[in-house]
């Protein structure tokens, strides 16, 4: 369910009893989580080294394959109801963003014809408020095309990454191990996702975040009619090339503007909407998505080589880079707080590159962002 803030629904949604982010039970750190997280960090580094041996270049542990990069702006309107005026959405504003489309696995050479989750990430500039690290002033927001996260908590992540390392090259053996687990459907789902045009793909936070006073998940919904029509355009292994997803993106962005709704789903029931375990979808019929902003992306080249190299070699997307009022919550996000910097550190060391924390669109290479509806781009 997506109410899109229709006026007749806002009053009812404002009266709901939303969980406060500091309420008892929102976060519960299990025993041995610290050790599980450290083990995962070491396994991810091992996977990166394996990719380095193959490509002689070190990539991220996940989302290694870039499908496209674009510049745009995030627009927050001034007519949000009070319960949605949270964090950076408290006041109307427009924020420049740079975004990356990706494939989720850690193999940069993964064939696009193989169905796997896809990712989307954006770095938002000119955001005001108290940051986790005041020297890093962008707001990082990341998404995945599946609403539930198979690496649902630190313990599960350790177990599944271990299985993928040992049996990833032998799917029958891997599936035998996965089918012995209680979460087998969740773990196997990634291999059966719809392999469709990325411009028509809905993207999800999967994990929970602080949303000002509250707790929420978020999603990104393609909203233009052109994007919606592309939903039926699926990858055909016998007809399409191994880089068809990036080809489709380039063709789309060269001819069309793109538009997305940024929506939040607020937490009301911790038993039904767990924060610590990200493997369960929060039912949108019970807990509707509510629109807080729009993402507008003008026509442009979506595969600029200079920008691609800069992003992969120097930048890091990390949900812990941003506002305290959008704090990542739950076990998967506590894991990211350790694993992401460790992954980035190894990449820089093995590639002989420095990590660069960009603070404005002027630091982003490639052509300047085109105008949107005749309006000059934000800086």
Note poorly predicted spans: none
Strand count, sense and barrel status of the largest sheet are:
9 strands, antiparallel
The counted number of beta strands is 9
Topology pattern, helix = H, strand = E: HHEEEEHHHEEEHHEEHH
Radius of gyration: 20 Å
Number of helices: 9
Mean pLDDT: 94
Through-space gap between termini: 35 Å
Shape label: globular
Kindly describe this structure.
It is built from nine helices and nine strands. The model has no long low-confidence stretch (mean pLDDT 94). The protein is 28% helix and 18% strand. The protein has helices spanning 7-14, 33-55, 154-167, 171-178, 184-188, 225-229, 244-255, 305-314, 331-351; strands spanning 65-76, 93-103, 118-124, 139-144, 203-204, 209-211, 214-222, 258-266, 290-297. With 379 residues, the protein is of the alpha+beta class. Strands 1, 2, 3, 4, 5, 6, 7, 8 and 9 form a nine-stranded antiparallel β-sheet that branches.
What are its keywords?
single chain, nine-stranded antiparallel beta sheet, about 375 residues, alpha+beta
Quick structural gist:
The protein is α+β, with helices and mostly antiparallel strands and 379 residues long. Helices cover 28% and strands 18% of the residues.
Topology overview:
Layout: H1 7-14, H2 33-55, E1 65-76, E2 93-103, E3 118-124, E4 139-144, H3 154-167, H4 171-178, H5 184-188, E5 203-204, E6 209-211, E7 214-222, H6 225-229, H7 244-255, E8 258-266, E9 290-297, H8 305-314, H9 331-351
Antiparallel strand pairs: 1-2, 1-9, 2-3, 3-4, 5-7, 6-7, 7-8, 8-9
Helix pairs in contact: 2-3, 2-9, 3-4
